[in-house]
Every structure is written in C-alpha cells, then in structure tokens.
Write a structure and sequence with these properties.
513 residues; mainly alpha; two-stranded antiparallel sheet; 3% strand; elongated
C-alpha cells in the first residue's frame, strides 16, 4: 500500500505518526481553517482564470464546486488523517466533486507552504483587529471610571510604601496610557502582517505568469510580499503578536495585583460585587477574588506560550519547516484566544469595582504620604535647600511615628523644633500653609504640573486620551472596512465566474478587479 497523497512514498503513514501528528493536526486545523481555505482557493482560482493559466471550462467548474463546498461547510468533508492534513483532505473532496483532472488543476502555481503562511497571516490579522477593539473598549471603560473618580483621593505607592496622594481616577488614567502603547503595538502587528505570501509557492516562486497583486487584493492585503523565501520562512508577525499580548497582560496583571491587595480588609480601598467573587468550601465568611487570581495566572500562561514560540523558532533554518511554521504559531493563536477572554474580564473589573472613598482619603491623611509637600514648603517659604528640608521633615515623621501622631496632626511647632535641631534656627511657616500641605485633597489639587494628579489636570488629559482612542478605533475600523470590501469583491467575482456563459473570457465575467 502506498501513501495516499504521493507516489514518491511507497508506504502509508505509520499508525503512530497518524495518531500523534496528523490526526490531532487535522482535527485542530481543518474546521478552524476551512473558511480561510475557501477564500484562498477562490482567490487563487480567480487569478489563474484571469491570467489564462486555467481554461474557461475548468475555471467555471472549479468555481461552482468551491461555492458548493463553502455552502455545505466543513462537516460535508470526510476527513482522513492518512492524507496528512487539512489541505489534502479539502483537495480530495474537491476532486471527488469535479474529477481528478479538473480538481488537481487548482493547485497549479502554489504550495501548501504559501497557503499555510497566508492562512497564518489572515488569522493573526483578524485576531489583531478583535483584540484591538477589546482593548480599546477596556480603555474607554477605564476613562469613564477615571472621570467619575477624578476627585477620589487615595495614597499613591512606591516600593509598596505610602508615597504621595493621588486619586483613583489618576490611577486608572495612567493605565490607559500603558494600554495605549499596547494598542500601538497591535496596530504595528497589523502593519507587519499586511502582506500576502500567496504566490511564493514552496520558497522560490513559480514560472507560471501569476499575478500576486490580484490575490493579495482579493484577500484584503495591501500588497504581495517581496520575497518568496521570506514569505514562507517567516512567522515573526506571530512572534510579535505573542510578545505584544504578553506585554499587554503584564500591565493588566499589575493592575490586578493592586486590586488584589486593595480589596483585603487590611487595606479596604476597593470592593467588588459578589457576582465576580467565589467562596470557600469550609470557611463561610470567605469572599475570594476568583477573577483576580484567574487573570494573574493567565498572564503567566501567556508569557509561557510566548517563550515556547521563541524557543521553537530560534534554531530552525530560514525556510519553511514544521516546527518554525506550525508549532510556533499554535501558541500565538492560543494566546490570542486567552487574551480576548482576559480583556473581557478586565473590563468587567474596571466597571464593577467600587472604591471606598472615605477609607482611601483617611489613609492618605494619616500615612504621611502628604509630607513631601512640607519639604517643598520649607524650600519655598524658609529659603533652605531641599536636602536640609528633607532632613527636617524626616525627623518630624520619625518623632510623629514614635509618639503615635498621624500626619494630619503635625504642628508648626514640631517642624520648628526639627528645623532648630538641623539648622540651629527655627523656620517661619504658617499653620494655614502647613494645613494645606497635609490635607490630601488640597495636596493633590496643587499638583497641576504636566502629568500630575490634580483633578483638573487629569480631566483635561482624559479628553486627549479619548481622542487618541477614537483615532485608533477609526484606524481599526478602516482595516475592517477594507477586509469587508475585499471579501465582498471575492464572493462577487467567484460567483460571476461560476455562472459565466460558455465562451465568455474570464476577464469579461469578473465583476471587479
């Protein structure tokens, strides 16, 4: 018994090879890629007919068969892992419909290599559009909450120690800036992936007079790739996508980690509804942050998938091979699916989490996060260096901690005593100025410098962030519109070819090109 797909191979696939390699690959890829195979086959057929590489009768019969396969769907195809993978099973069904001579002509001037590369680019392109939209939606929700909570004062932290007062709205707006860079990376993926490898064949192109620009246009790309070898050898767009998603999820995970700590009774800064929590099987008082833990874990998952992809490709030759082209992209597509789920949960968190305004403000007033402004006050009012001011206020904080005094209760007398010890003289500061520094609300309001947390500054910046998101959304919508128009043109032309009268040249039958 010979191979089911080639006379070159005198033996069929070993059962172990079928079971461990081709059967799982076929089951995984055929249904996922069926629609893409339809589109690629239709675009390739239209090009062959347009270029006169196929005669009119064969082209019409193939067009009708491809439309029928599209209408009947993947379940109409009898799958046989002995034929290795998705395309050979697709082709076998097509040949059964139109005969070996006509059915076998569709593969003229192409290879599974350039077909596979085209499928991967289309899949990454579609995921980049969907994930960009989900991330834009998350960012828009965060901006809405940032506007709502622009005046909700809370401690800001460095090294997980109280640093300076900020607002909850300021915190959310900062996350949107980071996500904006993630959106930029996804848009760059769309640029990287926007080139059609169809026509590259195995790696060296073809001697047939093909028109790669035509298939590129029909499949929604703006251009064919310049190098046949690069077209089949490179999946760096998938690596770029995986890396972009890992970076995106790291930012998400850092927000989740903040929420994780802030939701504990010890902090008490935020609360989330019961609908996004779980409980204990033994401890009846428990309200566990199930969504937060899932997202932290999922970030590690995506980083692992990205690492696996890079490790898979690193020692492969610069040409087509199963590990560089197939195994490396599997992790990218899994990352894309998981990222979409994670972004939906992130959006739910941002929208549902409620900050505890009183608790946040109380901690900001008590935990010495305001005292940097006291040092600044000494520089402005007492004409001393910042380093001397730093020493003075450090001594004030130390004494207050030793005596159990909250930051809001620091007095001018305490500051003067510390100044005398440091400088040999008191400093002239007024109680009103002292109070303004130690009041978290006034403290935050005074920080109007570029990028600061003053509510007016934050709200003004929110408007610019909204404009930036709208611009990105418009760009993504433009890509979506281009793809939709290409799909419409492809379907219109394949049906025009299938129904064209005998004797009418393919070029005359096409609706548009």
């Amino acid at each position: 018994m010979e191979s089911k797909i080639s006379r070159r191979l005198k033996e069929p696939l070993a059962p172990e090879v079928v079971e461990y390699i081709f059967a799982p690959r076929l089951n995984r890829e055929f249904f996922t890629n069926f629609e893409l195979l339809n589109e690629i086959n239709q675009a390739h057929l239209l090009m062959l007919a347009w270029q006169g590489i196929l005669n009119e009768e064969s082209a019409r019969r193939l067009a009708s068969a491809l439309i029928r396969m599209q209408d009947e769907g993947p379940n109409a195809v009898e799958l046989d892992p002995g034929r290795e993978e998705a395309y050979f099973n697709y082709e076998a069904h097509l040949i059964k419909m139109v005969g070996a001579d006509v059915g076998g002509r569709l593969h003229t001037a192409r290879s599974r290599n350039d077909m596979g590369a085209t499928i991967d680019r289309i899949r990454v392109r579609d995921f980049a559009v969907r994930i960009s939209r989900a991330l834009i939606a998350l960012s828009q929700s965060a901006l809405a909450q940032a506007k709502r909570y622009a005046y909700h004062v809370m401690p800001g932290y460095t090294h997980m120690q109280a640093a300076q007062p900020i607002t909850y709205g300021y915190y959310l707006a900062a996350l949107v800036d980071a996500w904006g860079r993630d959106i930029g990376r996804l848009r760059h993926v769309l640029e990287s992936v926007d080139g059609s490898p169809l026509g590259a064949c195995a790696l060296a192109g073809t001697s047939f007079p093909i028109d790669p620009a035509m298939t590129s246009e029909l499949l929604g790309f703006t251009r064919p790739l310049g190098s046949a070898l690069d077209g089949v050898a490179s999946r760096d767009f998938a690596l770029e996508m995986s890396a972009a998603l890992s970076i995106m999820m790291i930012t998400c995970s850092r927000m989740v980690q903040d929420f994780y700590i802030w939701s504990t009774p010890e902090f008490g800064y935020i609360d989330f509804p019961d609908s996004i929590a779980s409980t204990s099987s033994i401890m009846p008082q428990k309200k566990n942050p199930a969504v937060l833990e899932f997202l932290r874990g999922k970030t590690g998952h995506l980083i692992g998938l990205t690492t696996a992809a890079f490790s898979t490709v690193k020692s492969t030759h610069f040409t087509h091979s199963g590990d560089s082209s197939r195994e490396s992209t599997r992790t990218c597509f899994e990352s894309c699916e998981e990222a979409l789920k994670a972004l939906e949960l992130m959006k739910l968190l941002v929208e549902k989490v409620e900050p505890n305004e009183k608790r946040m403000a109380s901690r900001a007033a008590d935990d010495f996060s305001t005292v940097t402004d006291l040092a600044d006050l000494l520089v402005r009012k007492a004409d001393i260096s910042f380093r001397d001011a730093h020493h003075i206020i450090g001594a004030v904080v130390r004494e207050s901690l030793d005596n159990g005094i909250a930051a809001k209760d620091i007095t001018a007398e305490t500051v003067n005593a510390a100044a005398t010890a440091q400088l040999g003289r008191p400093v002239a500061i007024h109680s009103e100025d002292l109070h303004a520094c130690l009041d978290p609300v006034l403290n935050v309001s005074a920080r109007r410098a570029h990028g600061g947390p003053a509510p007016e500054t934050v709200l003004a910046r929110l408007a610019r962030q909204e404009e930036s998101l709208a611009f990105a959304d418009t760009a993504i919508e433009g890509t979506t519109q281009r793809l939709s128009e290409a799909h419409t043109m492809l379907q219109k032309n394949i049906r025009a070819l299938a129904t064209s009268p005998v004797g009418v040249p393919a070029q005359a039958a096409f609706a548009a090109h």
